[in-house]
Specification:
By secondary structure, the protein is of the alpha/beta class. It is 43% helix and 15% strand.
């Protein structure tokens, strides 16, 4: 069976094992509701497409989706930021796709909950938002019976990976197509090369080496009006809770090819190292700028992975598979014997792998032969996450422990926000205390403010709630006065403290997973490098 056929098959061995490990009861319960979401818009051959994420990859996916079939229509667009939507649509229209774009103003959605509104309006959704949001977006799409193109990586932590695995198992049962953005698996030259590897043309695999050493990527300068949260989401690649670090966001392409060579058998453990020695400025968040990881397979094969994002350094984006009969130069699509003699080289047609992904996705939908890339897109993401975990911790970690980790990076980020928020409360209390110490009329504040309560406001959520209520009442009492009882305490200090306490309470009460823009504001978010947990937090 060729690589192309395996990509579309729903019953090769890894996929069968994939289904066996699923939550069958949960799937059966969901299926009971029936498959009632139509593939096409009523009464026509038109396939309604929705785009989530108007960045470069999102616009590229939309262009390829529309080019895949003249009957495809882009009808809904969503992004966390409204200002990205119209410029993205303008670029698509300028790509000679005007006749296939039918996005009305009431189908342009922004905010964290935009994904629900887009998915509710379409037959196929293109998921190209930051990876952190992929699991819940894909879950909602499959719940609603919507096919999906899913950009890589599919998650940033093990709970996200497990969620996507369960979702893809359900998609399999519902007959929905799930196509991965791991694009090399749709490249003609790569498919032929890996077919030769699997046929044994290079002999049995003994070791593998992959490298993704490149320069720095884009970054958006922070604007004065942006909060920490908005800055991080707009520059999501530099924050682990949003991207999974660049070993996950970028190097996954190389890691996935090693998994492909091993016919989607994954390593049993890994060790590694990494750090940030060039890209250390605060504007680059807290992700590393280099990794080196050694993966070990059950049969003794070792895979050596390295990646780097540093300007002014040697570039090396290559993959090599070493077999008992020869060496596979993956990017040159050739196999050479150890004596230097050519064994095999690809001579067939080239293709645009990005376009092929969408051609095959929409053909599978129209032909009723669904593609499900769920297994390898989940496990290759997990392999990248394992690499990050061993590099961050300096420990050897097994794939089993990594995959069963309970570490939710969104909870880590939320915990860090609480720490930052508590510090703001403490600082505001100190400022008021200093102002009171300079004045002579502290007693005038007694009816409005009990400073001893504020000193403990950050120690426990109950005290914080009590302090919040205290200040709400204080502001009401002072709201009608032309001057405050003690001019040594400016009104803005009181308002600042009130805001800090409210923020602390809101963060404490927020859900671990950001789901709705209605219950989450663009508050401050601080996730410094020192907050990255050690190995004990991962396993």
């Amino acid at each position: 069976m060729s690589s192309a056929e395996k990509n579309q098959s729903s019953d090769h061995s890894t996929r069968r094992e994939f289904l066996k490990t699923g939550s069958v009861a949960a799937i059966a319960g969901t299926l009971a509701s029936g498959l009632n979401h139509g593939v096409h818009a009523a009464g026509s051959d038109i396939v309604r497409i929705g785009l989530l994420g108007c960045g470069g990859r999102g616009k590229g996916a939309a262009r390829q989706a529309l080019n895949a079939d003249p009957a495809n229509r882009l009808v809904a667009v969503g992004d966390a930021f409204a200002d990205l939507i119209d410029p993205g649509l303008k670029i698509l229209r300028e790509a000679n796709l005007e006749s296939q774009i039918d996005v009305k103003d009431d189908h342009k959605f922004s905010g964290f909950d935009a994904y629900k509104k887009v998915i509710d309006a379409v037959d196929v959704v293109l998921l190209a938002t930051p990876p952190r949001f992929r699991p819940e977006q894909l879950a909602y799409a499959v719940e609603k019976g919507v096919h999906a193109f899913v950009e890589k990586p599919i998650a940033v932590d093990a709970p996200g990976v497990r969620s996507v695995q369960e979702t893809c198992q359900l998609a399999e049962k519902k007959g929905l197509s799930i196509v991965s953005g791991l694009c090399w698996r749709y490249d003609n030259e790569m498919r032929a090369t890996f077919d030769e590897i699997h046929k044994g043309t290079a002999g049995e695999i003994t070791s593998m080496r992959c490298s993704y050493n490149t320069g720095e990527l884009w970054r958006r300068d922070r604007q004065p009006a942006w909060s920490d949260m908005e800055n991080q989401v707009r520059n999501w690649m530099y924050y682990t809770w949003l991207s999974g670090d660049f070993i996950n966001e970028q190097h996954i392409h190389s890691i996935d090819k090693m998994a492909w060579a091993m016919q989607d058998e994954y390593p049993i453990k890994a060790t590694g190292t990494g750090g940030r020695i060039v890209r250390t400025d605060k504007q680059f968040g807290h992700v590393y700028d280099h990794f080196a990881v050694e993966y070990v397979y059950k049969n003794g094969v070792r895979a050596f992975s390295r990646c780097r994002q540093q300007n002014g350094t040697a570039r090396d984006v290559t993959d090599h598979i070493y077999g008992t009969a020869g060496i596979v130069d993956v990017f040159k699509h050739k196999i050479t014997g150890y004596n230097g003699k050519k064994i095999w080289r690809y001579k067939g047609k080239k293709n645009n792998m990005y376009q092929t992904e969408h051609n095959e996705l929409f053909a599978s939908i129209k032909n009723g032969t669904p593609i499900n890339n769920g297994y390898y897109m989940s496990m290759s993401t997990m392999m990248a996450i394992l690499g990050r975990m061993v590099a961050y911790s300096g420990q050897e970690i097994t794939m089993e422990k990594a995959l069963n980790s309970q570490q939710d990076l969104t909870d880590v980020a939320r915990s860090s926000r609480l720490v930052t928020s508590r510090r703001k409360i403490e600082a505001a209390v100190v400022n008021i205390q200093k102002a009171l110490a300079k004045g002579t009329s502290e007693s005038k504040w007694s009816e409005f403010l009990n400073i001893s309560e504020l000193e403990h406001a950050s120690s426990h959520i109950d005290q914080a709630k009590k302090a919040k209520n205290l200040f709400n009442n204080t502001l009401k009492k002072l709201g009608g006065r032309s001057e405050y009882p003690d001019t040594s305490v400016p009104a803005e200090k009181l308002i600042e403290l009130n805001k800090s306490i409210k923020e602390y309470v809101d963060i404490s009460n927020s859900k671990p997973l950001i789901q709705d823009s209605s219950d989450f504001e663009w508050g401050d978010l601080d996730f410094p490098a020192v907050a990255i947990p050690g190995v004990k937090k991962y396993v």
